[in-house]
Amino acid sequence: MLEGRLTHASTLKKIVEAVKDVISEANFDCNDSGITLQCMDSGHVALVLLQLNSDGFEDYRCDRNITLGINFAALTKVLKCAANDDSLTLKADDSGDRLNFVFESQKGDRVSEFDMKLMTIDAELLSIPDNDYDVTIKMSSAEFSRICKDLANFGETMNISADKESVRFGVEGDVSAASVVLRPNETIDEDEKIVSTSIMVKKETNVNLSMKFLKTFANSSLAGSVTLELQDDIPCLIKYVFPNDLGVLCFYLAPKGD
Amino acid sequence: MKQKSLLNFFGKK
């Protein structure tokens, strides 16, 4: 059986919010080291890879490997009922046909419970090569979100090019063109945390990516910073690392090209 | 510009 308790239900809420426009249903594979989800969009353009480590849970126990087939529309309905500072306890027995959610307020004076029917999802897993990318950019997730939102109005393809000094996000539309150039820096955000832009380049890179997907994957609520890994003609990796060793949410996006 | 598929890059397990 699986039993996992997250201190903040909002963690799962934000993850589901971030992926529900890309995938409609997916398997959560649970074992004693944590929970993994791998799923592509229906067009095979983007892939979501979620890894939640058992250590990041307040309590976690999974005696046997279990696959939970989840419909995201149903999951969204359940998670909408959680207040942001509620804790969340997930429970499933070995049959894997239902998933139980318990939300508890911080003071313990309100407990709500939901039971969700699971489905059998016939999903093929892909093997993702462990690529050593030519370019690694780490930046504020709010900045990445702003760039994608601003530039999305100008065209359907984002060109990202990076050299040792800067990274350029550019769009060529039918009637206008737009670009944003970022250089390495270090600033202090409103929570007095250091938010830096770092650019590591082994080889100058130039990639074209779908604006629609980038806009979906640019999400400032998941983590304070985002890492972009790029290489010519290789799927781009957009990675959010959760605090307290809870895990990562990765988006892989296939490039555009001739 | 043509959108490529992830299946061109990642093999099935």
Overview of the molecule:
The complex is a heterodimer of chains A (258) and B (13). With 258 residues, chain A is mostly beta strands. Chain A has 4 helices and 21 strands. In chain A, the strands form 3 sheets. Chain A has a 10-stranded antiparallel β-sheet. A 5-stranded antiparallel β-sheet of chain A has the order 5-1-7-8-9. In chain A, a hairpin with a 5-residue loop joins strand 3 (34-40) and strand 4. The mean pLDDT of chain B is 94. Chain B is rod-shaped, with a radius of gyration of 9 Å. Chain B is built from no helices and 2 strands. By secondary structure, chain B is an all-beta fold. Chain B has strands spanning 2-3, 11-12.
Q: Helical proportion of chain B?
A: under 10%
Please, how many helices of chain A? 4
**Low-confidence spans of chain A:** none
- How far apart are the first and last residues' alpha carbons of chain B, in Å? 29 Å
Overall mean pLDDT of chain A stands at 95
Termini separation of chain A (Å)?
Answer: 49 Å
Report the portion of residues of chain A in β strands.
over 45%
How does the helix and strand content of chain A classify structurally? mainly beta
